[in-house]
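The instructor's notes for this session suggest beginning with a concrete chain rather than abstract definitions. Hand out the sequence below and ask the class to guess, before any prediction is shown, which regions might be ordered.
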Amino acid sequence: MGGGVTDAPLMVNPGDLDRLMPLHLALSAEGRIISHGPTLGKVFQGRSLIGRNVFDLIRFRRPGGILTMADLVQRRGQRLQLHPHDSPDDVLRGLAVPMAAGGLLLNLSFGINVIDGTRRHGLTDADFATTDLTVELMYVVEAKSAVTTELRQLNVRLQGAKVAAEEQAMTDMLTGLRNRRAADATLVALCEARAEFSLLHMDLDYFKVVNDTLGHAAGDHVLKVVARVLEAEIRGSDTAARVGGDEFVVIMPGLVDPDRLQAISARLITSISEPMSFESAICKVSASIGMTRSVIYDHALPDQMMADADAALYASKHAGRGRAQLYSARPEQVSR
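After discussion, reveal the predicted structure:
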C-alpha cells in the first residue's frame, strides 16, 4: 500500500482506496499528506510522502493562484493541473473533494500524457484501477505499436524482396555479370546525360568448338572464367555484362583515351587466350573486341554506339581474330 491513515479518518478502507484510486492523494486540513496511492508513490520514485506539506512537493499550475490549503479548498470540485516540483515533465490532472473528517481527497490521473507517464515510470496495467479507461488505452497503444512494428518489418521485407527481384532481373544468372537489360539501361542513362564513356563489345573466338567437342558444361565453365577476367580488369564504376551466348559488353564511364582502351583490350585478350582447365580437358578460346567512344558523336545514341561497336568487332574477326578494333570513320586496328 502506498501510505497509511494517521490523524484523519477516510471514508473507505485504505487498501480499498488504493485499489480504487491508485493515484489518490489525501491531505489533512493543514495540507499535509496523510495517504497516497501506490502508483503516485512510483511517480515520486518511492520517496516518503506521508506527513510532508503538499505544496513542498507539488506545484498547482491551473487554476492559478493555488499557493495554500485555503486556496485549494476554495477550488474544490474544479479541474486541477499540477506537477511535482522535481519532475515537471509529469503533468497530472485531478479533482479535489472534501473528506468527512476535514481535509481534501485528490484523485489524480495522467490525462493525455498517460503514455509518456507510463513509459517514464515503468507502469503497467496493474498500476491503474481496473475501471480506469487508461488500461484500455494502454492495450490499444500496445496493439497499435505491435501492428506498426509488424507493418514496418513487413515493409522492410517487401523492400528487400523488391531490391532482390530487381537485382536478379538485371543479373546474368550463369556468370553473375550484368545482363543485356542492365547494359541497355546503363547506356541509355549515360547517353541521356551526355556523359563521356567508352563501349567495348567482345565476342569469344572458337567458343562453338568448345561446346561441340567438350559439351555445354565446358562452355559454361569458359563463360564463368571470362566473367572473372572481366571483373579483374575493369574498375568498380564500369559495367560488364553478358548480352548473348558468348557476347559481352563493357561500359566504361569517363574513360575515352584510345591508349588506355588499347591497354585494357590487350590485357583482356591475353588473359582470355590462356588455356582453361575443365575436368580432364583443356579449353582454348580467344577474344575479338570492337570499341567506340561517345566523344566521336555530336549526340551519342545507344543503338548507334552498339551498331558501331559491333561493326568494329566484326572488323577484328575479319582481320584474324584475337584482336581489337576502335571504331572511327575508317576503323583503326588496336593491336594485342
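Then share the key points. The two ends are 92 Å apart (CA to CA). Residues 149 and 155 are 10 Å apart (CA to CA).
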